[in-house]
Input
Amino acid sequence: MKLGTRKILDRAFSGLGLTSIILMAASLIILLTPIIIGGTDAFVFKGTIEHRAFQLNHFGRGDSEKIERQMAEAASARQPVYDMIEDFRAEMKTMRGPDKRYFQEELDGVIAALNELIGPMPGQDLAQLARTKYGATRWDRAQENLKHLLYTEQWASAAPGEWATKTYMPRADTFADTALYPMFGYVESNLQEMLRPQWTFYWQFLSDEPIDDHMFGGIWPMMVGTFYLTIGAMLFAVPMGVLTAIYLVEYARDTKLVRLLRTCISTLAGVPSIVFGLFGMAFFIRGFDLGGWHFSVSDNKSVLAGALTLGLLVLPTVIRASEEALKAVPRAYKEAALSLGAGRWRTVLTVVLPAALPGVLTGTIISMGRAAGETAPIIFTAAVSTGVVLAPWQVQEATPALPWNVYAMVAEHKEREALRHVQYGMVMVLISIVLLLNIAAILLRARISRKLRG
Amino acid sequence: MTQATLDSRGSDTKRPTGVVGTEAPRPGSGGISCYQQNDIFRQSNDSESDAQEAAHVVSDSFSIYYGRTAAVKDVTIEIPAGQVTAIIGPSGCGKSTFLRAINRMNDLIPGCSQSGKLFLDGQELYSPQLDVVALRRTVGMVFQKPNPFPKSIFDNVAYGPRMHGIRNRRELTEIVRRSLEQAVLWDEVKDRLNDNALGLSGGQQQRLCIARALAVEPEVLLMDEPASALDPRSTARIEDLIGELRGRYTIIIVTHNMQQAARVSDRTAFFYEGELIEFGETRQVFTKPLQKQTEDYITGRFG
Output
């Protein structure tokens, strides 16, 4: 090969590598940016007086005097709205039957929209859900809700064969020439006074329990659940995996059976996680009968069943990583220990394992991140949408967990549109947890390596 | 099959390949501490007494196979106690393999088998009843490349004693001190016993490995080319150290370096292609070899 060709090939190769790295970095940024922006929204936002009122009533947080004064001010700003509605009701009484029915229906719509915006009217009796007792707690949601008050959505029927288009009809038009007409303009221009938005740093998003299905509060039980499941999985997978790896590396001869075992482990690493979930449900929860005895981990979804399933899921990774780490320990260490009269097991414990620790740790932490983030294995074995914070010994109880709750909120929550900030917040927290674990692992490994290198 | 020349000087050194008490007789330091006379060839009369020592390691038609190929063929040799015995020979002649058979390190190599008999103090080493761990306690080993554990200097030396059940800190400290002093390393490391051993220089590491081996108080010390990975200055220190240890331990050293064998050993065995060609007093082997092959090798005609 000519020198020139070789140079070109060389450049092409390094260029290709660089491109792929840049691409990866770019996709990471594209992925993380919305998560960080959306997730920050769960912590830092313009909170309305409704948010502060909720915090005061529910958790006793904040300066009660100040908040009550603001509430009174907001109430006086809202009073004209209620007055106008009363006036309109009086006006309706004079109307003819069909008109009355029509306006009554329209008025119900207006009041429902108002409830979402500023909470129940004085004397209005609503169902006992937290969300019906408060208006919009966030200024961005308030603006969205204001739109719902000012406009009704209508689907304009287009020509046959074409898509219908969504149009917004101002409600004010419906109430033209009535006592309610000025209310719309008043709300639009006085929303600030009615809700008194303020920049809020709601760090308790991390430590609060969710209230009314995540309409209020934070994600503490989910974090705790994720923590339990992850730690439980590691408690199971790491000893098992390391022991297996020690057996495979130090004890097993290269027989057909061992080779088969290795293949099985590799295959297990590639099995889809939902299959592990189903296996966990079948094996740990439904259990099996043996000689008249019934064996199962728990009768229903539980932390224990979920942790064991997750442990099984990451076991192949732990085994593989530990095996590689153990194999990489210099033979000389082992020989030295043996020549000093150490037994095999002793050699492994005192020399080989410590030297392999950085590698074992790396594998452990990678699997830990995976266990923390997996959804499919816990769907059937551990996760529920709402639950309380469990004590460490309540392993027989089901728990909420971040990955599952993210999925459930995005896919199944009735108010999912209104709760994007919570979804993003949970995703961001989950990613942060995994990231923190990785950083901790890197630091720990660096420390141990440094100690080993001298 | 070469009949090994067991001892060049005939009947007065011939020993029965029998049972020798576990407490190996150790020569008084007087006879042998003359290491300072670096020129071994001048130790004419003193070495007469060395030969009186009892055989410590005895092999009887001992062969080692890797798979089907014999690496060591039918070796019969009696290695005397308390002396330094060098095994020389070209690469691949089986000298290391033979050495590693003495503490059964060959067990680690898959497909390695042996025939014939090998005795240490009259105990057969390859008998199924033998406690390998106890054997390796009696027979220490120093490897070609310094291989300290990635632990502190103290922990390296204390590794063996700790394993054998000594937990008392004062006792351990005493052993570590004594071993390091024996290995002539104490003065260099006494202030940094808690530093990682991998921070030491290559020569210091090797002396640490010797200290580590000495800490379990072995009777036999096997050295597998202990200086081949070291610079000349460190090599000299290791050789001095071997001189210091002579008499207290039965030392068997494999070396590539014929000058080294001549400098440090009382006796020399020459291996060639797995066979023991000649075994005798170092001075005699190097000056008046009985075998043609030995002469060719030491005069540099091959190898």
Remarks:
- Chain B has a mean pLDDT of 81.
- The longest helix of chain B spans residues 169-182.
